[in-house]
Design a protein that fits this description.
This protein is mainly alpha-helical and about 240 residues long. It has helices at about 1-55, 55-60, 65-75, 85-90, 95-115, 120-135, 140-155, 180-185, 195-205, 205-220; strands spanning about 120, 160-165, 165-170, 195, 225, 235. Strands 1-3-2 form a three-stranded antiparallel β-sheet. The chain has a three-stranded antiparallel β-sheet with strand order 4-6-5.
Length: about 240
């Protein structure tokens, strides 16, 4: 009985030692793989910087080329817009490009806010920028605008892109839309307006829930009330009108 006990302990110790060696070898292999991947990533980043330097002007001027370059950067965790004074910003001068675009976005949103309540379709924003700045902004895409707005959102000033249905809208008012507010906006996408009856029918809401959501949007200046309708008040989103003229 004692001999079997001793042998059992020896076997357990031997098993533990084997497991420890396997774990050590596994760690060694994992560290080697991580080191190799890190080296490959550094090499790719170096090649990417060489590519960027060579095609700098095309990246700035050609929107399709610029979009492909941004996608390449994203795949390896490089953000050319992370800092206006960073390596990539100095190499490409893209920091200035998106900073200037961001300032112009703010100007358009502020100028149109009294009419649209702080909601403007992304495509309309692009058209307005093109009209206001001519050839200097003729090459700007909605993806460029989205990237610039994403950077503006870090300032905490309410600028963000929201997706409603299949359309992207720019919100420039510092308010967090609730799920009900977004549903109201979704309902108004085709006609530009909603009414309490429509909301109650479409979403199976009680009347007070529909009115509460509308009152929140009225308070933020995002919708207008039309009391001239014979049946009931209509609530219009001016930002969904065609305001490109």
């Amino acid at each position: 009985m004692r001999r079997r006990g001793v042998g059992g302990v020896a076997a357990i110790n031997k098993n533990k030692l084997a497991k420890a060696k396997f774990a050590e070898k596994g760690t060694e292999i994992a560290e080697g793989q991580i080191s190799q991947m890190s080296q490959q990533l550094d090499e790719f980043r170096t090649k990417l910087s060489d590519f960027a330097a060579k095609h700098r002007n095309e990246i700035r001027k050609n929107p399709e080329f610029r979009n492909h370059f941004q996608q390449m950067c994203a795949r390896i965790g490089v953000d050319p817009l992370a800092s206006s004074k960073g390596f990539w910003a100095e190499l490409l001068n893209v920091g200035d490009f998106y900073y200037e675009l961001g300032v112009q976005i703010i100007e358009v949103c502020m100028a149109t806010r009294p009419r649209n309540g702080g909601i403007i379709p992304l495509e309309e924003l692009r058209v307005r920028l093109t009209k206001a700045h001519g050839k200097s902004r003729g090459d700007v895409t909605v993806d460029d605008l989205s990237r610039a707005i994403k950077k503006l959102s870090t300032l905490g000033n309410g600028f963000k892109v929201i997706v409603v249905g299949n359309q992207r809208l720019v919100q420039s008012v510092p308010v967090e839309l609730s799920m009900d507010n977004t549903a109201v906006l979704q309902s108004a996408m085709d006609t530009g307006y909603v009414c309490v009856k429509t909301l109650c029918s479409e979403f199976q809401w009680p009347t007070d829930r529909a009115r509460r959501s509308l009152e929140q949007l009225i308070k933020e200046g995002m919708i207008w009330i039309d009391s001239q309708n014979a049946e009931e008040d209509l609530y219009w989103f001016p930002g969904l009108f065609n305001n490109e003229k």
